[in-house]
Amino acid sequence: MKKHHLYTDSVHAGEGHFKYSDALTVPIFQTATYVFKNSHDIDKFSKKELQHYEYGRYGNPTQKAAEKKLAIMEGGEDCLLFASGMAAITTTLLAFLSKGDHIVLTDDSYKKTYQFCTSELPRFGIETSVVEMGDYDQLSKSIRSNTKIIISESPTNPYLNLADFEKLSEIKNASISKPLLIIDSTFGSPFNQHPLKWGCDLVFHSATKYLSGHNDLLAGAVIGTAGLIEKIRIFQNATGGIITPHCAYLLLRGLKTFPVRMQRQNETALQIAVLLEKQNQLIKMVYYPGLPSHHDHELAKRQMKGFGGVITFLIDRPLDSVKKFLDHLKLCQIAPSFGGVETLITHPASISYYSYSREEREKIGITDGLVRLSVGLEDPEDIMQDLQQALHSIL
Ligand code: PLP
Asked: Which end of the chain, N or C, is surrounded by fewer C-beta atoms within 10 Å?
């Protein structure tokens, strides 16, 4: 069997077939539809004797190249791309669920996944049980005869909690209903972890983050066996929500540098997490799976190759001081999202959770002092210096 190397696959995989007019790179096929040469070709196409693109919503060569590359990078048979991470998640769930079905979701899932599963799916007669992340006993007990899907994330936002893939797949295999085990691996990325290798069935990515890596597009991906992806593709053909040819091209381009970026972001984040932990007169806690102080560090070492570019920390000061800290930053820019080349910092309490009351926020651990940093590709010394001068302003 061919040995796969991520650095080589990210540059070459999926593309050979699509080299047109001797171009080195895959072009952007900016077309809504495809032309058949004659009725003979139409007949051959309809009998599946001819591979031919038909209409833009059903696929595009630029999209196909990005899908093939990402499938290989994630260790799956096939991949399907979408207009956003949420389009990937919602389309996939709906492709496998019907009225009367039940799903299990871990509690600190991305807030829009949570909303979709707990507020939207019930309108279609689909029930969701929410279980505490890390409570495998509760998870196991919550599986019913009509449970079709277990969905979890790893690492999670903002505390970077980990799901134990091995335990999850054991639970799934031991259950009667054999639900699909789906992992949102956005925070992990295919550089650091491969949930499919641990027995998970499908992997989601918000390709908006590390995979594209330049904070310039929205995209989503689902990866798994050819059979499962085909089922989702047929459903996507009807629901739409596809990636545009231009975004597929930008993603394909971003994927070529993904392992190099990811390795650097892993290294920078670990360095900064260690330094932040030393600022204990101002910082109460640093959450980073690569730190021995992180509650899931042992699992992270077992399951991950690196620990990602996101660090969450708790500033031990009131809200006005935290705002002053943010306002003093010069290099780190205040914005949600993560995984891109620019270092971004976000204040979950006032950005992502502004619509929640203080009580609601605190119940889910979103306190005023909590800050999430996504390191970019700048020099680690410059990022740290910027953080230090801003922290100094609130000493
Ligand atoms: N999953 C996770 C873990 C995310 O953090 C996000 C977005 O932040 C999504 C899914 C949704 O992705 P998108 O914003 O590309 O729709």
From this structure: N
